[in-house]
């Protein structure tokens, strides 16, 4: 069989000062803009694909992109009609199965949206965590940290390092103030857990390389441009340890809501079957 080539009959050349939509508006509402065999693409169909407000150049590119994609689909469809057997072309069962699956999904979503309780209390999260701690082992380390990128010769560098590593709240506030005014970048993650992959992005490296530079509670990596990236590790949990509750509370909330969804669907299925049996619409012979 010959190689398939999209058959394309392109619109007449578009004036550079006009958008594709503007040009198409000049022709008849149902004017044909492309044709493949007996298949025709109409102006109105093409216009729906092109968003308002795009430049003339972009609208032209979008128009040609759509026409090529449309033409390719039609070519494949025609070849399939010619080359496939009658049995192969019978897709009625697949269409019916897809239709039923889609209708079922849409009804389930409507049923869930009307009944789902999305409120999850902190006590429910805590209870779930307490019963399922073995499900929350860390795959990578997590940290609470303070990060800054600063000029290597900054006169405030050592002062900031000293104060940012202090446990005194006044020193920490002073470190914040100095960092915001002196550092090229400052990020304070000391009030929430983040994974080391996220912290490594601040350094522009991978977390294994980042952790290899850790000395005590500090990680320091020169960026090669006269600056130095520094992180003070406030707390750290290693891979394999149980994640703290606050780190996985969002995930637990999603799990609880998801289990409610499954319970609603299960109840729906049982109720529908029982109703069908009661009305003798469902009978097993």
Give a verbal description of the structure.
With 285 residues, the protein is of the alpha+beta class. It has three domains: 64 residues; 39 residues, no CATH class; 100 residues, Roll (Chitinase A, domain 3), CATH 3.10.50. It contains eleven helices and seven strands. The strands form two sheets. Strands 4-3-7-6-5 form a five-stranded antiparallel sheet. The chain has a two-stranded antiparallel ribbon with strand order 1-2. β5 and β6 form a beta hairpin. The longest helix has 34 residues. The chain is flat, with a radius of gyration of 31 Å. The N terminus is likely disordered.
- Which class of the largest domain in CATH terms? Alpha Beta
How many DSSP H or I helices?
11
Can you count the beta strands? 7
Distance between the termini: 51 Å
Strand content: 15-25%
Q: In one word, what is the shape?
A: flat
CATH architecture annotation name of the largest domain: Roll
Helix content: 40-55%
